[in-house]
């Protein structure tokens, strides 16, 4: 199910990231501690009283320069207005309104989607008097909150959740894989899309995506159909400020929510950036398949083992990416671009793969003596049996004596071993733990 995207916008220092962390802190749908990834987040899946959404802190996506703040804010607001479903416009309630706030309010007035005007740093009742100053803008409702102390944040969330649909229209259970192409501006996404939808390919007319103004394309390649998400959006060049990355990020998040497999396009010369790593983490949390495609391979100086060296570098530094396939290609010249289709087929197979309970338990049994030490109240963890409960993504249920003893260490150990044995290349694995009193 595609989730709504909620963007927090506002001047630097009004408390965007504090609010983001306050909301995400307790309510993150999945909290994972992946080593090698910086801890600061800009986006998170949030689950709040049965409603799910994606929260984006646009502040974390700002370029680092401190001048041009107003222009940046305008750009940022434009992006959010275009791409998000709901906007939280955060202001500093303690400081009072500033001219740039007024500017953004004017822009937001014309917007047809829900906008929440939020005044932060209202740490106590006394400061709340400041709020009066803001009512001169003719806005119906302001939310005075304190992101730092959590004051009235739940009230804001409750109201936001009321405007969230409980379920966006389900994508039709498609027979074809749905592919999102994501990556930084200039990585070559539009060039790649043009290649993949090449002239000689049968393109079954563009179809409207479920999200507003996104146009998907179905392609037939060797008698199989593939759906590429938001091809129009990828081709459309960012009209907003150059250098602002939030454009592609917010758009990417939406596409990832809808896809089966995300292709993360990386500029070979630039290498894997923090932004790419964050996107990859998001893909994993959304439990989608993932391919890392190293583009512009034509301009990399190479000898016979450059590819291996490049792969080794990435996988040594980022060990958690070990199970993701790397493709080296050139969208410009077309070299190895068609391999993308084979890789998609392979991942779809892995995504839907089912290991029989017998086979799984023989394997789990063989691991019993090698489990990392784990105890609960002095009692050692015992792994009784396991079964694969689902596919897309593959879900393994582990029955143990003390679920509390299943540390991240043990889960990672199991995941690594399952991957070593069966591969599951490019797909996330879900491990669920259940309590059993004894082995059967
Ligand atoms: P951003 O640049 O908009 O992301 O702002 P930050 O979240 O980094 O916050 C900027 C500063 O405001 C930090 O020093 C925060 O501690 C402070 N701050 C954030 N929320 C509150 C609040 O509710 N009350 C007060 N008094 N300070 C806050
Ligand atoms: P997007 O912003 O991710 O959609 O990137 P574009 O597809 O617009 O490509 C950005 C620039 O990189 C353009 O000038 C492309 O011609 C160039 N480019 C894209 N793919 C390749 C490639 O494989 N090799 C080289 N040398 N240039 C490429």
Describe this structure in words.
This protein has twelve helices and 18 strands. By secondary structure, the protein is of the alpha/beta class. The strands form four sheets. The protein has a seven-stranded mixed β-sheet, sandwiched between helices. The protein has a six-stranded mixed β-sheet with strand order 2-3-1-4-5-6, with helices on both faces. Helix 2 packs parallel to helix 3 and helix 2 packs parallel to helix 7. The longest helix has 15 residues. The chain starts with a strand and ends in a 5-residue tail after the last strand. One guanosine-5'-diphosphate binds next to helix 1.
Largest sheet features: 7 strands, mixed
Percent of residues in helical segments? Answer: 25-40%
Over the alpha carbons, how many angstroms does the gyration radius reach?
Answer: 24 Å
Query: Which ligands accompany this protein?
Result: guanosine-5'-diphosphate
Low-confidence stretches: 28-39, 61-67
N- to C-terminal separation? Answer: 37 Å
CA-based shape: globular
Written as H for each helix and E for each strand, in order along the chain, the element string is EHEEHEHEEHEHEEEHHEHEHEHHEEEEHE
Trace the largest sheet across and list its strands: 8-9-10-7-11-12-13
How many individual β-strands? Answer: 18
Mind sketching the topology for me?
Blueprint lengths: L3 E6 L6 H12 L15 E6 L2 E7 L11 H15 L2 E7 L6 H11 L5 E6 L21 E3 L8 H11 L14 E6 L5 H8 L5 E7 L6 E7 L2 E5 L2 H5 L10 H13 L2 E7 L6 H12 L3 E7 L10 H12 L8 E3 L10 H13 L5 H11 L7 E2 L2 E2 L2 E8 L4 E6 L7 H15 L7 E6 L5
Parallel strand pairs: 1-3, 1-4, 4-5, 5-6, 7-10, 7-11, 11-12, 12-13, 17-18
Antiparallel strand pairs: 2-3, 8-9, 9-10, 14-15, 16-17
Helix pairs in contact: 2-3, 2-7
The protein binds guanosine-5'-diphosphate (2 copies).
């Amino acid at each position: 199910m595609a989730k709504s995207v909620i963007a927090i916008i506002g001047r630097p220092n009004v408390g965007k990231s504090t609010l983001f962390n306050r909301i995400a802190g307790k309510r993150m749908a999945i909290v994972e501690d992946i080593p090698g990834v910086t801890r600061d987040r800009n986006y998170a899946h949030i689950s709040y009283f049965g409603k799910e959404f994606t929260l984006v802190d646009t502040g974390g996506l700002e370029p680092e320069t401190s001048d041009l703040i107003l222009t940046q804010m305008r750009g940022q607001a434009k992006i959010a207005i275009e791409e998000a479903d709901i906007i939280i416009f955060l202001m500093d309630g303690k400081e009072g309104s500033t001219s740039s706030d007024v500017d953004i309010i004017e822009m937001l007035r014309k917007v047809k989607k829900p906008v929440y005007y939020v005044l932060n740093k209202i740490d106590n009742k006394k400061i709340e008097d400041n709020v009066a100053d803001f009512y001169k803008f003719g806005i119906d409702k302001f939310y005075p909150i304190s992101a730092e102390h959590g004051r009235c944040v739940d009230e804001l969330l409750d109201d936001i959740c009321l405007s969230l649909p409980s379920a966006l229209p389900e994508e039709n259970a498609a027979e074809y894989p749905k592919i999102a192409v994501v990556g930084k501006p200039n990585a070559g996404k539009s060039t790649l899309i043009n290649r993949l939808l090449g002239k000689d390919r049968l393109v079954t007319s563009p179809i409207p995506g479920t999200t507003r103004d996104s146009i998907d394309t179905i392609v037939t390649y060797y008698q199989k159909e593939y759906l590429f998400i938001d091809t129009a959006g990828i081709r459309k060049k960012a009209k907003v400020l150059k250098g602002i990355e939030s454009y592609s990020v917010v758009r990417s998040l939406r596409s990832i929510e809808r896809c089966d497999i995300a292709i993360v396009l990386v500029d070979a010369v630039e290498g894997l950036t923090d932004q790419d790593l964050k996107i990859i983490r998001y893909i994993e949390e959304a439990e989608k398949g993932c391919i890392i495609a190293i583009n512009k391979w034509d301009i990399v100086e190479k000898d016979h083992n450059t590819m291996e060296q490049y792969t080794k570098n990435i996988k040594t530094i980022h060990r958690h990416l070990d199970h993701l396939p790397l493709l080296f290609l050139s969208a410009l010249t077309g070299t190895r671009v068609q391999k993308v289709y084979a890789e998609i087929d392979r991942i779809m197979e892995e995504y839907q793969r089912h290991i029989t309970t017998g086979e799984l338990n023989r394997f789990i049994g063989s691991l019993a003596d090698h489990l990392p030490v784990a105890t609960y109240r002095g009692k050692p963890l015992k792994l009784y049996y396991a079964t694969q409960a689902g596919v897309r993504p593959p879900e393994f249920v582990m029955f143990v004596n003390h679920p509390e003893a299943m540390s991240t260490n043990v889960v990672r150990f199991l995941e690594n071993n399952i991957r070593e044995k069966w591969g599951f290349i490019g797909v996330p694995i879900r491990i669920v733990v259940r309590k059993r009193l004894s082995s059967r």
